[in-house]
Structure formats: C-alpha cells, structure tokens
Amino acid sequence: MASKSEAKRRKRLRLRRQQEAHLTQLEAERRYRESLQRVLNALEMPDLFRNLPKKESMALLMARFHPPRIDPAEGTRVPRRVMEQVRKQFSILLKAFTLPVMPGYDSVSLEDFSTAGYALAAHSKLKLPRSSGALLSMLEQLRPFSQYMDSSNDECMRWLKLAATAACMSINRVNQTMYLPTPRFDSHRLGLALQCRVSMRICPVKPESRVVSMDGKPRPACRIGLAVAGAGIRWAATTPAELGSTSDFADLPMQACIQSHALSRLRERLDTCNLGTIHSELFFAFEKKQFAPLANNRALAAFEVFGEKVGYLLVEIVDGAAVVRTFLFITNSGTPEGTRLDHELRVGKMEKEYLQIDRLSAFVKTDLPQDQRVRNVFERVGLGHLCRLDPKLFGSREPNATGYAKDFVKYMGLG
Predict the structure, then answer these.
(1) How far is CA 272 from CA 18, 235, 345, 386, in A?
(2) Judging by beta carbons within 10 Å of its beta carbon (0-12, 13-18, 19+), is residue 294 exposed, middle or buried?
(3) Residue ranges in the chain modelled with pLDDT below 70
(4) Strands 193-205 and 69-72
(5) What does the alpha-carbon distance between residue 139 and residue 56 come to, in Å, rounded to a whole number?
(6) Of 122, 100, 97, which Cα lies nearest the Cα of 111?
(7) What is d(CA 181, CA 186) in angstroms, rounded to the nearest whole number?
(8) What distance in Å separates the CA atoms of residue 120 and residue 16, rounded to the nearest whole number?
C-alpha cells in the first residue's frame, strides 16, 4: 500500500511540475509577442504578421521572452542575494530606458529593442527557397529596419552598459566590494525565430586602501571609485589647485580617499538613502568638482543625491591625497546654508540635533515639508529644495509621520 500511495504522490508531483512548466512557457511566449507587437507598432507595421500563412507565422513567432540572466564572472563567487538585487534593478532599467526603433519613428524600451527588436531584424536575413509571397513581402519590408539595427549595435550596447552600471551602483561599497558588470547579448535559433536575451556577468573587485597621517596618527582610508561597465574601475581624483592650494605642485593629480568616520556620518545623516547609492555618489562629487576652498588645505565638496544637494564632504589634502574627513548635512553648522539657517532660526548644533533637522529623514519621512511656514523659512536660507524632495526616490516607503511640523513650528515660535 505504501509503495502504491508513494507512486501516486510522485505522479501527481510530476504532473504538477509539468503543468507549471507549461504555464511558464505560455507566459514567456505571451510576453515575447507583446514585446514584438510594441516594436511593430513603433515601426508603424502593426499588422505585419497577419497576412502570413499560419505555419510560417507560428515558425517566426515561436521565440519566448526570458528575463535578464545574471551570473558571476568566471572564477569568482557572488552572493545569491546580490545577483538577485542586480537582476531586479537591471530589469527595471531595461524597461525605463528608451530608444527610437529607427530615426523619425517612435521609441520602445531598451528591453524590447534588445530582444524582440533584434529578433525581428533577423527575420529579413532568412534565406528560404520555398516561401509564400506574403512571407517574402514581409521580409522585404523589414530590410531597412534590419540594416538600421546592424548599424545601431554600438548605440544599443552603450545604453546596456549604462543600465548595467546603474544596476550595480546600489550594491557597491567603496570600503568592502565593488561589482564590475559586463553585459552582452545571447541569441540562438528556435525554428525560424531568433531567441534573443540580455545577460550580464558581474565581477567582485576588492577596494584599494592606504594609510594617511591624520592629527598625528596613522589612519586607514579607502580610495573612492565607481565600477563602470566597459571601462573597469574609475578612480576619483582631483588636484590641489581645485581645492584651493597655490603650491608649486598644485596641478598634479592626486587620489581621492575617504575615512571610515566620513562613511559613518554619511550613513547616519542620509538615513533613508540606499547605501550603495551614497557610495556611488562619492565618485560623482569629485567628478562635478563643486569645491569651496577653506583654510589649511581644506575644502567643501558639494554632495548630491539624484541631482539634489544634500550636504558637503569636508576634504583635506593629506600625504599627497584628497581625504574626505567627514560629511556635513546641508543644515549643519559649518555649511553656507546651515550658517544662514542658524541666523534665521537662532539655533545651534544641539537644537538641530534635538529637532532632528540634521538628517534627511526629517524631510522625507515627516510632515515638516508640508507646512507653509516651515517652507518659507527654508526657502529664505536656500534650503527650499529639501521641502520638495520625492520621498519614494530618497528611500522612504512609509507614510509621513504627522504632528512633527506642528511641534517644530511651536518650538521655533513660527506660529
């Protein structure tokens, strides 16, 4: 009895798996045809396949949609959670980026362009001795599109590299591991159809560090870099002249590094932001070169997240390197905007900490920006953009805490 019941159980399990596999295949075929139809609509050929004999139409449309495949580079190990996070981000970006199917025509997503688009263009290269007149006519209509796709490989790959770089930014850590992506196209024939898929390999790269003398003590600092698809690790750099130095060697390039204390301050004060995004924005802070020189070989470097200024990096020239000593949130005393806020509200460091306006969460997780009196104060000191930040973009998925603005207004006497 036991053996018979076990055999029945295994049969049911096998049938269930076969059914699930069949449903998955049908869903993949449906998604491919929807993607293909979007490309045809953009090409102003929505009915291209409808005049074909059923057998030829089915042979051309038997390809299936596959999500991007993410693998570790050969000989390396990457945590599964990291690959899954990259895959999700990469899929989102492939849908978000758009390209025109041809000059003067509508655009489609990078995902449609690099999968169904290339599969469709491959149809015009088919050499079929026995074909219907309708199929030969269709292939001829596709020839200009196919020729354009052949010439647009570099442009498409440029956008794929950009999407791959952005997808890995959320997991990069300049003090732990950076992940270098390499995107590519995979394709194979399924009958007359060309099965196209975007895939990517990611290679973990360990950080570079050095020891610098700070306040008379040796301290470790890691180099600031960004993993860029097709370009490797790009290291941030600057010159003493850009930081305000007038020495004889002011034009010589030097490495940009950051202390662990500064990384802690970034995480503490930008408390709603993705940590990988913060680490990636360090590189762009030096690329944009928005420096305000100070005394004693120091300078403030504007720090932006998604194009919005949220603070400053305090940079000092130490042992031939530009070392980030700490991070100042834009409301902190010591920043131009923070100093104006001090005078406007007559507050100091302790009161800002008590009111918690020394961190990003006050502006994206509370109702503070919704009070017009508060908005007016921050507009006057050049901080109005903090009240216009998009909470979802800056990592807050919770409803704004209510009552905070009322308490702030009462404490500051703005009523």
Answers:
(1) 44, 26, 25, 14
(2) middle
(3) 1-2, 55-56, 59, 126-132, 190-193, 396-400, 415
(4) parallel
(5) 12
(6) 97
(7) 16
(8) 34
CA angle 75, 79, 80 (to 5 degrees): 110
Instruction: Give the distance, in angstroms, between the CA of residue 284 and the centroid of all CA atoms in the same chain.
Output: 14
Residue 415: its pLDDT value, please? 67
What is d(CA 36, CA 14) in angstroms, rounded to the nearest whole number? Answer: 33
Q: Is-contact 273 360, C-beta < 8 A? A: yes
> CB burial class (10 A; 0-12, 13-18, 19+) of residue 18?
exposed
Query: Would you kindly state where each structural domain of the chain is located, as residue ranges?
Result: 20-205, 209-412
The whole-number pLDDT of residue 204 equals 96
Hey, what amino acid is at 8?
K
How high is the pLDDT of residue 300? 96
Rounded Cα distance, 328 and 358, in Å: 9
> Which residue do the tokens 């004693």 mark?
296
- pLDDT tens sequence across 172-218: 999 999 999 999 888 777 666 677 888 999 999 999 999 998 888 89
